[in-house]
Amino acid sequence: MALKSWVTAALLAATSLSGFAAPLAAKETLVVDFVAEPASLDPHGQWDVASYTVYRNIFDNMLTRDETGAIQPQIATSWTYLSDTEVEFKIRDDVTFHDGVKLTAKDVAFSVNRMISPEYASPQNGQFNQIEKAEARDDTTVVLTTKGPYPVLMAQLTKLSIVPEHVAGKVSKEEFNLNPVGSGPYKFAKWTRGVEVLVTRNDEYWGEKGQFPQASFRSVPDGATRIANIQAGVTDIAANFDNDLADQLEASGEGKVLPVLGERLAFFALNPSVEPLDDLRIRQAIAHAIDKEGIVEGILGGYDAVLNQMTTPVSFGHVEGITAPDYDVEKARALVAEVGEKAKTPFKLLTTPTYDPRVVQAIQQMLAEVGLTAEIESGDMANWMKLMQSDRQTTPGTAFGRWSCGCQDADGVLYSLLNSKSAWASAENAELDALLEEARVTIDQDKRLELYKRVHEINAEQLYMIPLYQASVIYGAAKNIDFKPLPNENLFLNRVRITE
Which residue positions does the secretion signal occupy (predicted)? Predict the structure, then answer.
């Protein structure tokens, strides 16, 4: 079947804009449209893009990245290695939380210990579980102790938000989620479920202040509505554009398209604990059946880039020369035939509307063409995350997913998705586990690359995960918005400007 037959013929017409209040003047309110509302505004309580995009503006992090991707100070101004496992950080002494209480090293230590606490059970724990403890030595000094040498520490700390101990330490997670208090450039104002999160500028912010007195993050699931909102002047920035929406906005002349190849990758997860995926030949057949180039060029419009490994070129750990099973329908059919009756066993294909349904439907059709039956199961992102972290015996046989650690280091992807200790992983491979554990404690960067090369090779052989493509982050924006998308998908409100 020709690839184009898998692609939706046309977009739905833009739906009515009724239900949204008339926007304030653009210089008063920056309006940002996303597909889904946040799952949580507690920065340690969730790890989805919608949540991160909002709370990253309410809270400061230990460290940050500039527009080139380089790690820069934020709450921590400098750091010194006391040993291979102890790092001393100096903390800014001019930062106050939104309630007026001064931020100190005690809040930093509390935030780190809260993140790694088994009792708190953060979904981000796998990114920080090499940290053993954090101790405040005085008001401006905190020491982090790691379980061993940890080369990814600084990259991970670009994602660790600082919360006030006097608030988060006294209320429940649910209460803090409903009324988050940070020290970032914008303050939480109001959360109207299913509609918007409203934040207001922190005029006492220690760093670069935002241009806009307030910003509205809105939940707009329909892509046609997001583009119509830009064209109508209702929205300033809209996220989660696919190529069709991008081309439509470009052609209209009523906005601009802002793409960037990011660290996020799209993958097809295979659970070898579920029939018929427990047979390597079936996993090989699936890999040969998926036309990655066809997906990128025929469905995604060439904005994205084909991947043969589970790390993107903008992240440390991407290795040259890794090969993956080639697209070969006949080889896939032969493998299915070789397996025989067992290959006819249907299996689930888990997804969520947040992900591009065209790609998921195309993969389902590609698998059908080689004799495999994948039954699409789609629910909201919370359901996707819950099922992906369930017991290996109950996790669906296959799943389409997109992953970004925000750290631009292979550890944030490979350890989470391939190490058997991770709740996200379906793989159980002792050699893989050992390599990933060693890479986490190896300071020598060349040695780390050698370890990750072997990880990529094992995954290409065993096919626990099929890397599909490096995702392009595509935003639409009003013509007068000055905004540079970042590979790690941070959207910093205080870096957005309006031009005349």
Answer: 1-21
10 Å Cβ neighbour count for 118?
A: 8
Pick the CATH number of 263-471 from 3.30.390.50, 3.20.20.70, 3.10.150.10, 3.10.105.10: 3.10.105.10
345 secondary structure, DSSP code: -
- In whole angstroms, how far apart are CA 261 and each of 298, 302, 303, 426? 18, 11, 8, 28
| Burial tier of 154 (Cβ tally within 10 Å: 0-12, 13-18, 19+) | middle
Q: In which residue are the tokens 């997670």 written? A: 173
- For the CA atoms of 117, 119, 122, 123, the dihedral, rounded to the nearest 10 degrees, stands at 120
pLDDT band per the 50, 70, 90 thresholds, residue 240: confident
**Residue 321, C-beta contacts closer than 8 angstroms, at least 6 positions apart:** none
Q: Which helix (H) or strand (E) holds 412?
A: helix 411-418
What is the per-residue pLDDT across 307-321, written as a single tens digit (0 to 9) for each? 999 999 999 999 999
On whether the CB atoms of residues 435 and 470 are closer than 8 A, the answer is no
- How far apart are the C-alpha atoms of 304 and 327, rounded to whole Å? 18
pLDDT tens-digit series, residues 428-482: 999 999 999 999 899 899 999 999 999 999 999 999 999 999 999 899 999 999 9
pTM of the model: 0.75
Query: Shortest CA distance to 458 belongs to which of 422, 417, 421?
Result: 417
Residue 409 DSSP label: B
Cα(244)–Cα(95) distance, rounded to whole angstroms? 44
